[in-house]
Amino acid sequence: MRTNIVTKKVPGDWHPADIIAGLKKAGTNMSALSTANGLSRGALRNALYRRYPKAERIIAATIGVSPAVIWPSRYSK
Length: 77
Hints:
Layout: H1 16-25, H2 30-36, H3 53-63, H4 67-70, H5 72-75
């Protein structure tokens, strides 16, 4: 029997495709942004699915918003 694993998305958090599109609009992508910040190529991708404050700050700064705007569930009190 095969089960599908679905990543739970919290309402209010940006969809990963929207984050990737925001980076593309800024003229970059996850891999390039990762290596430009001294990280491995796939490091920033982890922030799409789990808490990773350093990566969240890098992504948000590149898009031009606060990390709390992209991931309100991670920054709400």
